[in-house]
Amino acid sequence: MNADSELIKIQELFYPYAFQKRKEILNDKKRFAYYTSAETTVSIIKNKEVWMRNATCMNDYKEVQYGLDCLKEAYKSPAGYAFRNTLEHISPGIVEEVEKLFNSWIFHLQTDTYLTCISEHNSHEDNVGRLSMWRAYGKSSGVALVLHNTVFLSSSNVLNVYSSPVAYMNSRDVSNQLQQITFNIQNQSDFISSLGHEKLRNIIFHMYKIAVLCVKHPGFKEEQEWRIFYTPTMNGESKYVLK
Fold it and tell me: Distance between CA atoms of 156 and 170, rounded to whole angstroms?
C-alpha cells in the first residue's frame, strides 16, 4: 500500500464524519463561501491576506471548550470504554500514553489555536447566498467570497494550516462516533497493527485534537461550517502566517 492509499484508509477509519463530508463536497462539486463585510473584502483583495482569530476571541468564547467537554463525556461512556479496550488490545500501553500527551497539550489548544471559518456553498445559493450567514456576518454591506474547494480538501503540510468540517454534535453523538471508530478498528485490526505504535499514537492524538477544535453545538448546524486552523506551538510556525 502506497502512502496516499494508507492516508485515505486512515482518514476513513479514524475520521468517519470528516471523511464522509469530504466525499460529499467532491461528489456534489460544492464550493465554499467566506461571508464578511465589504470593508474586509477590500482588505483581503488589496493585502492578499485573511485574518485568523485566536480561539479565545471567537464569537462564542466556549468554541473550543464545548468540543473538549463533549470528548470528555464520550470518553467516559461505554463507547469510550470499548474504544480504549480495543486500542489497548492492539497496542498495549497506548491509551495511557495518548492521555498524557493530549492532557499536556490542552492548554495550548485552548489558547494558541487560530481559526478562520468558511461555509459550504450550495449551487442554489449562487444568487442569494444564505440568509442566516448574511445576518451573522454580512453586517450592512455583506459580501460572500465563493471559493473553489481544491485547496481545502488537499493533503499538504506546506502551510502548517489545516481544514476540517465542523461536526454539529452533542456528547452522545461523539460517543456514537467513537463506537463507529471502534468497529472500524476491530474490522481492520491487521492494518491498524501494521501502522506501528508511534504512528497509531499520533493518529489517536490528532483525532482528539480535531474533536476539540471542530465539534460545535447542534444549534449552529445551519452554518455548515468548515474550520481552517493553525496551532503553531503544536505543529510549528508557518512562514505563511504572521502573528
Answer: 30
